[in-house]
């Protein structure tokens, strides 16, 4: 298992710090999601990790040592600006990219055909990329990053524009790489997907890391809410001191409680008024955590 990490990574454009002392790890064998709003600095960070953009200060490490040019040649990278040539056959581009990673031509062709076969595109291997649907182009693009047994994967928005079945297929492919101990870092705006897939996630806000950990760790650090279900209208909870009613819908209320005493007071009041069908903690969703840390 080889960890890919960044330490105090900083990039300025003029007097603007697009990435400001960013540190995090993408451990080997795990999918690490990289999220943040538009302009938060994800692409800039990934470009520095790959060495396609110079680093103002800080360091990228692979396996505990400063990353080398030779290391980076073994990484699979899917850039934000998609790199396939529209007027070249898909198979040729996959073979070319595998050969760049030192795979002999014959083996590269075999691997490329296997991939195209898995995508259901074997018959279209010789078609120019531009003749494929956008989703299929995107899948070939991800495949290009996966050629030649990369030692790390850095993927900028690999799932954008894919339908759910295509996402699942691509995730299966990525999991084959994490199973070999490879670190996989990918950016995404699809929080539900990130929540479902990732063993770790890093949240960036205006160039800084504002949350970093496993989904469970982030959930523990997030605000716990409670769901209260009564047998009659729950609107009165809005008047209870220490209770912040996030949402009230008939007999059901989603509330944030200031402390344990508030919980007891709420419960006692509810019982005085009738039956309490449920009072239970609600683990925050990733979307809620994201809103809290990026607010
Ligand atoms: N070459 C550049 N010159 C000047 N500013 C840049 C350059 N590249 C990026 N920036 C700025 O750096 C900041 C971070 O941009 P970046 O593309 O890394 O964000 P992002 O998180 O990937 O956003 P998105 O989700 O929209 O892709 C933005 O303010 C952007 O305008």
Short account of what is shown:
The protein is of the alpha/beta class and 295 residues long.
Molecular structure report:
This protein has 295 residues and is an alpha/beta fold. The protein has two domains: 4-220, P-loop containing nucleotide triphosphate hydrolases (Rossmann fold, 3-Layer(aba) Sandwich), CATH 3.40.50.300; 222-294, Alpha-Beta Plaits, CATH 3.30.70. The chain is built from ten helices and 14 strands. It is elongated and about 80 Å long. 34% of the residues are buried. The protein binds adenosine-5'-triphosphate (ATP). Belongs to the ABC transporter superfamily. It comes from Isoptericola halotolerans. It holds the Pfam family DrrA1-3_C.
* Strand residues, percent: 25-35%
**Might you state the CATH topology name of the largest domain?**
Rossmann fold
**What general outline do the C-alpha atoms trace?**
elongated
CATH class label of the largest domain: Alpha Beta
Helices and strands in order:
Blueprint: E1 4-13, E2 16-26, E3 31-36, H1 42-50, E4 57-62, E5 65-66, H2 69-73, E6 75-78, H3 90-100, H4 105-118, H5 134-146, E7 152-155, H6 164-179, E8 184-187, H7 191-197, E9 200-205, E10 208-213, H8 215-221, E11 225-230, E12 243-249, E13 252-257, H9 260-273, E14 276-282, H10 286-294
Parallel strand pairs: 3-8, 3-9, 6-7, 7-8
Antiparallel strand pairs: 1-2, 1-4, 4-5, 9-10, 11-13, 11-14, 12-13
Helix pairs in contact: 3-4, 3-5, 5-6
Residues 13, 18, 36, 38-44 line the site of adenosine-5'-triphosphate.
